[in-house]
Amino acid sequence: MSNATQNKLIEALAVVFSLAYTLMYLKGVLPEGYILAGLGAGLFAFLCWKRKIYAESALQFFYIGMAVYGYNLVSEGGATAHQISLTTHAIWLSTATLGTVLLGLFLKYSTDAAMPYLDAFTTIFSLVATWLMINLVHDNWLYWIVIDTVSIYLYAKRGLKLGSVLFALYLLLALDGYFEAIQIF
């Protein structure tokens, strides 16, 4: 099997595991869904590193950690859905914007990253959105709507076509998650 074929197979498995996790999350099939989240993230970490999307690769390791955290949190009954204030959102957004600029500068001047600022944006804002998601804050879906839209472009530009399709599906799932009444899936 050629290297290109192996990479496509790995990408396909990463997409299937990641999509299955999100569907399970939407349907409340937790903590089991977190196992698939961790597997998908591990495969994407490998692929992103190979395509020089370094911050996204590191983000996948964060997702693995969050999958373990989420599994434990839900298994122990410690997660309950809640809202956060506009002030808290403003703090998250300000912090994430600063983090995006700093990481973007680092990637631009210290690595051969292909798209440093988009890579930084999707990475930093995904950290925030994941934290909100794992802690069952409903507004996490608003963050994901923006992140997924940017990720579609980023992954397509770096040749990860299935990953780009995954983010298009994630965008639909985020819309479904936020507006709940739509029930796309």
Structural notes for this entry:
The protein is mostly helical and 185 residues long. The chain has one domain. It is 79% helix and 0% strand. It starts with a helix and ends in a 6-residue tail after the last helix. The mean pLDDT is 91.
What structural keywords apply?
single chain, 185 residues, mainly alpha, 7 helices, 0% strand, globular
List how many beta strands DSSP finds.
0
Largest sheet: number of strands, sense, barrel closure: none
Structural class: mainly alpha
Q: What's the average pLDDT?
A: 91
Shape: globular
Radius of gyration: 16 Å
Poorly predicted ranges: none
Number of helices: 7
| Proportion in helices | over 70%
Summarize the structure.
By secondary structure, the chain is an all-alpha fold. The chain has helices at 3-27, 32-50, 54-75, 86-110, 116-134, 140-157, 161-179.
Write the layout of secondary structure elements.
Elements: H1 3-27, H2 32-50, H3 54-75, H4 86-110, H5 116-134, H6 140-157, H7 161-179
Helix pairs in contact: 1-2, 1-7, 2-3, 3-5, 4-5, 5-6, 6-7
